[in-house]
Amino acid sequence: MPTLLWFRRDLRCHDHPALLEAAREGGEVLACYVLDPRLEASAGARRLQYLYRALRNLSDNLDGELLVTRGRPEQRIPALARAISATSVHASQDHSPFGRRRDEAVGAALGEIALCATGSGYLVSPGRIIKSDGAPYRVFTPFFRAWRRHGWRAPADSGPASARWIVPADISGDISERVEIPSVTGQLIFEAGEDAARSQWREFVAANLADYRARRDRPGLDATSRMSAHLKFGTIHPRTMAVDLHSGDDAYLRELAFRDFYAAVLHHWPDSAWRNWNRDFDAIEVDDDETAKQAFEAWKDGRTGFPIVDAGMRQLASTGFMHNRVRMIVASFLVKDLHLPWQWGARWFLDQLIDGDLANNQHGWQWAAGCGTDAAPYFRVFNPDLQGAKFDPHGDYIRRWIPELADVADVHKLGTGRPSSYPEPLVDHAEERQEALRRYRRLG
Description:
The protein is 46% helix and 6% strand. A five-stranded parallel β-sheet has the order 3-2-1-4-5, sandwiched between helices. The protein is mostly helical. It has three domains: 2-120, Rossmann fold (3-Layer(aba) Sandwich); 123-154 and 194-268, Serine Threonine Protein Phosphatase 5, Tetratricopeptide repeat (Alpha Horseshoe), CATH 1.25.40; 272-442, DNA Cyclobutane Dipyrimidine Photolyase, subunit A, domain 3 (Orthogonal Bundle). The longest helix is centred in the middle third of the chain and has 19 residues, at 250-268. The protein has 19 helices and five strands. The protein has helices at residues 17-24, 37-42, 45-61, 73-83, 97-110, 140-150, 194-207, 212-215, 228-233, 238-242, 250-268, 290-301, 307-319, 324-337, 342-352, 358-369, 384-391, 396-401, 429-441; strands spanning 3-7, 29-35, 66-70, 88-91, 114-117. It is globular and about 75 Å long.
């Protein structure tokens, strides 16, 4: 009997457990993707560019036998299942708050047709790693130890030839909402899709993995994997990556563990997507008046007068990507120098980032703001000038993104040598650090 394979954040054929489950029932499989208008409206332009390119690559790998439709999944998935008389619908498990609500609605609309969720986009699915008393972990380090003890399965042996695919053109039922994959004209800083993800990972392992621990915090170096967008869209599974990581690669493995940890935190505390995980911080004083909004615009535009902050924000605006160390610096500046709500920065990141992932983004911001799990202590306020000098010692990253400083000898100590074309500092860091500490201590 035919089955339906519903692709979501798993736009690949290799290491795809749900694909194998859909094919295991012995009949033909219809591969489909639903362009949900709600997600298209909320995703930034660059994420949509990646999505459409990844869909095109998936369609090519399936010899064009991917049916793309637009609409609400609780309407389109049952319609497609009925059109092919499917006995079941298969998908990868989605643990996000939105995904769980959507899948409940789709399951109810399918009626007697089973919605089968298999696997997830994580090494260990959210909810699996818990304490002996059944409580979720609130701190990363013990989670990491338990996560490693738990382990994960080997990659699933799947590929484009794992199923007998139904040709969409042969379907006689209602597929009236079928659409072409939207065309894309804009450029991304890296290729999208499964083929690109697998190739990019192989290149990183060969060229940069051995030096990752030593070089990963230097934004001026091409030392990171830039796999985050591929993981966000599931064009590669982290298990495919983990097989290349050995005992000496703990620095990279910890990054994959943090991804699992933040997904687990969001799974257990779905309200933490936009509210403080530590509710004590609901009482913290933040600025949101007209002056604050002007400061926010200067931060977004890279016009704060602090070179490492402005370089990061300009990189983000230009490419849809920002080095992780710089993400922490610009986040600390927004919440502790400008005293703005972390949600403002988190929302801007989600609008701009190709790899914008709700769990990673929101809980990374809450780490910087001090209100999340494993949060930076309230008294840790990054000095942007010292951070720039430490992690971009020669100023290569800053000069790349701030051409006004291209001819400045020491970009970390501008002083009287600040070019007239580059803004004066928006705030006095020393004063704002003390103000941040005052506000945090009042939470007492």
